[in-house]
Amino acid sequence: MEIKGVGVTMSTSIEPTTTVDARGATCPGPLMDLIGAIRDGESGDVVRLLSDAEQSRTDVPEWVEEAGNTLHEIEEHDDYTAFYVEKA
Amino acid sequence: MTDDIVIIGGGTGGAVLANDLAERLDDEIDAGEVRVRLLNDGPDHVYKPVWLYVPFGKREPADGRRPLRELIDNRIEIEDTRVTEIDTDAKQLQTTTDATPIGYDHLVVGTGSTLASDEVPGLQEGGHDFYSEDGSLALREELLSFTEGHLVLSVIGSPHMCPAAPLEFSFMTDDWFRKRGLREDIEITYTYPIQRVHGNAQIAEWARPLLEERDITIETFFNAESVEPDEGVLTSMEGTELDYDLLVAIPPHRGVDIIEDAGLGDRGWVDVDKHTLEAEHAEDVYALGDAAATGVPKAGSVAHYQAGTIGQRLASEVRGQVPTAAYDGKTICFIETGMDSASFVEFDYQNPPSPIAPSQSIHWSKLAYNESYWLTARGLI
Prior knowledge:
Chain B: This is NAD(P)/FAD-dependent oxidoreductase. Chain B: One of its GO terms (molecular function) is oxidoreductase activity. Chain B: InterPro entries: FAD/NAD-bd_sf, FAD/NAD-binding_dom, SQRD. The complex is a heterodimer. Chain A is α/β, with parallel strands linked by helices. Chain A has two helices and five strands. Chain A has one domain (7-86): 2-Layer Sandwich (Translation Initiation Factor IF3). In chain A, a hairpin with a 4-residue loop joins strand 4 and strand 5 (81-86). The longest helix of chain A is centred in the middle third of the chain and has 12 residues, at 29-40. By secondary structure, chain B is α/β, with parallel strands linked by helices. Chain B contains ten helices and 23 strands. In chain B, the strands form eight sheets. Chain B has a five-stranded parallel β-sheet with strand order 5-2-1-9-20. In chain B, strands 13-12-11-17 form a four-stranded parallel β-sheet. In chain B, helix 1 runs parallel beside helix 9 (300-318). Chain B starts with a strand and ends with a helix. The A-B interface holds A 24-29, 31-32, 35, 38-39, 55, 59, 62-63, 66-68 and B 158-159, 193-196, 199, 201, 221, 223, 225, 237-239, 274, 293, 295.
């Protein structure tokens, strides 16, 4: 997967403010969980979203860009993906 | 020894399950080997789909209420009480009416959804809804006299009850205003939190052209952040502002607090195995309907089918057999596409929905089902 300007790694050193585990949820559940966490957070907070839904790979980057937040990194695991999103 | 089965919540899931158990465990209940109790916060069963029609003056909230005692088998004990605490270690419940805790061997949580309008500043003052009796009546006051201006239908909460209802309301208002010769003076905007017009990709693909051909403005990636009631402005997290004259919102939803307090799941939704419907964080606890975090819609048909699965599993358990029944994600839904046409979808975990062409006969089927729903609550259909 390639997303312009976003690092895709196997592990990251970013320390999240909060983690949202949306594994097992079907779309749009993971994105809505992320939106809820960003809604509740403060500017500068980093939300780590865990999702195993394939569609999150497109849904999450599209929404993050639309909302003006920052997707710092995407961490690939065997059976899920972790997205690191900073609230603007 | 008696097996105590306790159901919290007398909505569609709880009512159908209670009647299912009365029939399935007929002999065991008569022999005193099984006791089934249904705890509900109030004496009535409420059929929420009626509320969609209230703002248009087509139905009354009373049409969606009947006493539980009229619907539930007499061998099921009904208690009008509110559960205030679930202790899954001691396997007992605290309630508002009994000083003595209610013990259980098997617990089924069917506590449903509540509205959390307070999560969006200004929404309670500035928005209307058709997701409650009071809300649908207040909206009727506005809608019946609304003859010009900007109506905004904003889906704020997701997940929410009846995922099709926001689309239905939009199609119905368009048709209703059009038939009354008012549509040219009324702008309708539909907003949705993600990049599609519906959470389900297939339904979104079907609905988008229908919205467009009816000149309903679409705003996607719109997550309402605040409402300014005095100015009539709705602002999204994404930075979009919408001026409105009438705001109809699908408010954020939550389950009840006792779920989170009991460690069963977040925001009042019980974490469950989506096939067995067993709670993931406690033994001998099931959840169904809106309260169960399965990822399928929070809809009556889901609660209905899940009740059948849990009924079979509980019957197996009390008989010392291995339960094998599993919920397959089955969901059915009528979708109004106007005041006299509707579509229909059926889907499950494996098979996506494929909405059929709207027709008047499906619309009448929906209305007919709404009338015959009371047979579903009784466990007959």
